[in-house]
Amino acid sequence: MTGGGTKPQLDSSLYKRLGGAPTLRLFTTALVSRVFSDPLLQPFFYGTNPVPLIDQLEKFLCVLTGGPGSWRGPSPQGVVAGFAVTPEHFDRLMFLVTAVADEMDLGATGALPELKDCLLALEPYLVNSSYRPTLPS
Q1: How many domains does the chain have?
Q2: pTM for this structure?
Q3: Would the CA dihedral through 22, 112, 109, 12 be positive or negative?
Q4: At CA 103, angle to CA 6 and CA 95, rounded to 5?
């Protein structure tokens, strides 16, 4: 690129483009804080200590976005087993993800759509299948 501009590194991981560990830590801390205070999502976390949740979510997002390490925690289905997670709950979570990302100006990295795509791919594993609409035959 001429004129002193920078060329985006398309070959770098989403993890790096988001800002690595420091950004993921801020993101997960802010997201968990929002989730814990959200009237729709708060009941899922009643009695839960947010600190271990932040740690686990940060590790999961690190691996999900191509960062270092490996995931040894529960599967997404295992996390929500026994909960009546509806599409409305998932949509609210994605709304909060977007709000936190906007506050952190993650859109400036150009990586926000890819992060949202990674999280949207988890929807079938998080939403209880009994709440998904079925097509008429």
Answers
A1: 1
A2: 0.79
A3: positive
A4: 115
